[in-house]
Design goal:
heterodimer; A: about 220 residues; alpha+beta; 2 domains; 4 helices; about 30% strand; elongated; B: about 140 residues; Beta-Lactamase; five-stranded antiparallel β-sheet; 5 strands; Trafficking protein particle complex subunit (chain B)
């Protein structure tokens, strides 16, 4: 039971607030012998597994570190290039840490505007007249709840499929937005929300919703 | 409860089969354009979901809801995609979509030597069997028969 993240998108599709909550992205460490039985490639300046799933390492996972040294993009922290380190036989046996990469701010902004357009297409393709956009999107590991206000601001909550009370939580989120962002004299409309009171109140509400979710089960 | 329409796409995005039952609004564009838009949306949702997901996905995208309809999605490992639009009262119909694939598509298209797998399906046998199957479902329409 958990609420994974919260996104707020303005009426133009720009991301104005994002919050990740207890995101424990799985990480996997494994020691390899030469030659490496995985195919790796550079994608978006990261070293990503392209082929050869084994022991829980999936296609799309990226290299997070080698022998305890953290990776930064396609280089290690000590400046060596990851693919070069992995291609020379004298570095083996080698311990590689794999995992899902945390989303960068740029990616979050991109995903937010992507959802903005999916929302519109969803209502265009409707077989019934006067449909709204996507309100609930289900996958096997999370549910995405979206609420669009009259003024076009979208509140998106990504939560565990079993989490209850998300609709109430979104309404609360709207209230917090109205109380601590809109009523803040220093906040300008459609701009990123940087406000401590907003942050703390949001966190409290998330924790409250998660606790209530456990109680009702 | 009711079923509005059904799309079958192949792995390249060609719409192999489309049929509608109780659809009340057209998308205001030509049918081929609508297929492209639908496939484009499904493709983007898949990539969106795999990137925004906090953990690794198994089945990936299953369905979405608006205030008027619900879209159900099923993809086979070979990339064949089945998309069904229903109203909001319908629950999880993954098994039904799988049955359409295994009992109707495989039976009457894959095993039919004259059916081309990457061309739109014209087999009448497939069409009648699919129509029969959909009309026999418990959540098929009460509204307009």
């Amino acid at each position: 039971m958990a609420i994974f993240s919260v996104y707020i998108i303005n009426k133009a599709g720009g991301l104005i607030y994002q919050f990740d909550h207890n995101n424990t992205r799985p990480e996997l460490e494994k020691t390899f012998a030469y030659p490496l039985n995985l195919m790796l490639k550079i994608y978006d300046d990261k070293v990503v597994v392209a082929f050869g799933e084994c022991d829980g390492i999936k296609v799309g996972h990226c290299v997070l570190g080698i022998n305890g040294i953290t990776a930064e993009g396609r280089y290690l922290q000590d400046g060596r290039e990851i693919l070069e380190v992995l291609s020379s036989a004298e570095n083996y046996p080698i311990n590689i840490k794999f995992g899902r990469q945390k989303l960068s701010t740029n990616e979050k902004i991109m995903l937010a505007s992507m959802f903005h357009s999916l929302f519109t297409i969803g209502s265009q393709l409707s077989p019934e007249p006067r449909s709204s956009g996507i309100e609930l999107l289900e996958t096997d590991v999370f549910k995405l709840h979206c609420h669009q206000t009259m003024t076009g601001i979208k509140f998106i909550v990504i939560a565990d499929p079993r989490q209850t009370g998300v609709d109430v939580f979104i309404k609360r989120l709207y209230e917090i937005y109205a109380d601590f962002a809109l009523k803040n004299p220093f906040y300008s409309l459609d701009m990123p929300i940087r406000c401590d009171l907003f942050d703390t109140n949001l966190q409290q509400t998330i924790e409250q919703t998660e606790r209530q979710g456990i109680n009702t089960v | 409860m009711t079923i509005y329409n059904l799309h079958i796409f192949d792995r390249n995005g060609t719409c192999l089969y489309y049929v509608e039952w109780n659809r009340r609004k057209s998308a205001g564009m030509s049918q081929s354009e609508e297929f492209k838009l639908m496939y484009g949306m499904i493709h983007s949702i898949k990539s969106f979901v795999s990137r925004i997901s906090p953990t690794d996905l198994k089945d990936g995208f299953l369905n979405f809801k608006t205030n008027r309809y619900k879209l159900h999605f099923f993809e086979t490992p070979s990339g064949l995609k089945i998309v069904i639009n229903t109203d909001l009262g319908v629950g999880n119909i993954r098994d039904t979509l799988h049955q359409i694939y295994s009992n109707i598509y495989v039976e009457y298209v894959v095993r039919n030597p004259v059916c081309d797998l990457d061309k739109p399906i014209t087999s009448e046998l497939f069409q009648t069997k699919l129509d029969e199957f959909i009309r026999g479902l418990p959540f098929f329409p009460s509204r307009i028969n």
